[in-house]
Amino acid sequence: MLYPLIFHPVFKERVWGGREIEKLFGKKLPSGKIGESWEISDRPNDESIIANGKFAGKNLRWLMETFPHELLGDAKPATGNRFPLLIKILDAREKLSLQVHPPANKAVELRGEPKTEMWFIAAAAPGVELFVGLKHGVTRAEFEKKIQSGEVADCFHRVPVRAGDTMFLPSGRVHAIGAGLVIFEIQQNSDTTYRVFDWNRVGLDGKPRELHIAQSLASIDFNDFEPKLVSEKFSGDEKIKSRPLVRDPLFNVEHLELKNGATAKLKEQQLQIVAAASGQIEIKSESETVNLSAGQFCLIPASLKQTEILAKSDAAFLRVEAR
Fold first, then answer.
1. pLDDT of residue 287
2. What would the pLDDT profile of 46-65 be if each residue is shown by its tens digit?
3. CATH-assigned architecture of domain 235-322
4. In angstroms, rounded to a whole number, what is the distance separating the alpha carbons of residues 51 and 298?
5. What span, in angstroms and rounded, lies between the C-alpha atoms of 90 and 68?
6. Catalytic residue among 14, 93, 173, 195
7. Is the fold of 7-219 the same as that of 235-322?
8. Which of 70, 136, 141, 204 is deepest in the core (most CB within 10 A)?
């Protein structure tokens, strides 16, 4: 019988990374600029290892091979029968490259994987922004000229953000994370990124990082102008409030706020991931109880019944459904 599962993170050093994941969430980082914490991953050579319960030490690949129906329910696996989602925390001390991920109708010919994703702003320095979509009126021809002149950032729409904001990023939408942000990233299980511009910097090896101009131009949606942050408002009562963040064929995401002592029931027969954004929560199932604090994640297998979340303090979390 499966149970609520937590995993050991997989840390990734990045030229734009830092140490905020350690400062904010108490994770024990290796040395260096850690830009990514892969919290739930079924990527080759980066499979998450279970940290709790009777299957501790086994990895997510083993779970997918051993309990596919119990784990997924009706959710569709990714290519290669992989877990459908990849869940990360990102720490951007510098700007990320201006980039794009290929849409499904282009990915095969480009030998990549589509990657639709969502960013939830966990922490933000004053005055920070995202680069998302194109400014109104920017044409492909103008975009290409700006690439050649090194001014392509001028074509990007910029969105000021603060903690609690959310941006949805379908494949084909050009984007970059600005400096000073910590983000929960919910994404399709893919690791294909095409860089348009990397701010003329060098990578961790001291060499300029590869750009992918032809692939980027083939992938970008040149009719995607000035997208907005998710604007849905909270509804509910004094104890429990919720708002939908994403409704997509790949995944749904809901943002919940609970007062200390409040209880929320999770759906049954649905693969879900709980991402703790603030406070302390307890996840109770028939077989296991798991405690989460901010920056921790829990996978709820589809086979679980009567699973609920108890707020041990005022708390907020994301509930992700894989579809």
1. 84
2. 999 999 999 999 999 999 99
3. Sandwich (2.60)
4. 10
5. 28
6. 195
7. yes
8. 70
